[in-house]
Specification:
With 152 residues, this protein is an alpha+beta fold. It has five helices and five strands, in the order ββαβββαααα. It has helices at residues 22-28, 77-89, 99-112, 118-124, 136-145; strands at 2-7, 10-15, 47-50, 53-56, 69-71. Strands 2-1-5-3-4 form a five-stranded mixed β-sheet, covered by helices on one side. Helix 2 crosses helix 3 and helix 2 (77-89) crosses helix 5 (136-145). It is elongated.
């Protein structure tokens, strides 16, 4: 089946199996920021944007992206580098396996809600699992990135 989509600003065409998931398609075109975690849509590691909205690419058939825009971490590198500095400063970048999905969601949150509250941040990022950090470093990085002090 021939698919066509815009990936990180570039038109991409490929012949794929009808049952191929978006995660597998994107990795097949050498986009390696996407990670496979659970294959059930529960961990957030494979988060990409489909028409600027975060989706779990392990749960989206590639054909669903036909004629749509797909953005991966490779497509938002400058923004990602800015937030990554906050993660590193808070020691929340330990193995880094979950970081691409987390960063994609953080950047989507920033675009959707200019000044999120602590509760909005926790709700928005509830589906991002991490086995290394215990989340406190990530949470501190997010608070600093969004300019939220402890008093809020």
């Amino acid at each position: 089946m021939l698919v066509e989509m815009i990936v990180n600003g570039d038109k991409v065409q490929a012949d794929i199996r009808p049952d191929m998931m978006l995660l597998d398609f994107l990795r097949s075109i050498n986009l390696k920021s996407l990670k496979r975690g659970c294959d059930t849509g529960n961990c957030g590691l494979c988060t990409v944007w489909l028409d600027d909205k975060p989706v779990l690419s392990c749960s989206v058939p590639a054909v669903r992206a036909m004629k749509h825009r797909v953005t991966t971490l490779e497509g938002v590198q400058e923004e990602a580098e800015e937030f990554s500095k906050y993660l590193a400063e808070e020691g929340a970048d330990q193995c880094g396996y979950c970081s691409p999905g987390l960063i994609m969601n953080v950047l989507a949150l920033k675009r959707e809600i200019q000044n999120p509250t602590k509760d909005q941040i926790k709700e928005y990022l509830a589906g991002n699992l991490c086995r290394c950090t215990g989340y406190q470093g990530q949470y501190r990085a997010l608070m600093k990135y969004f300019g939220i002090g402890e008093e809020q």
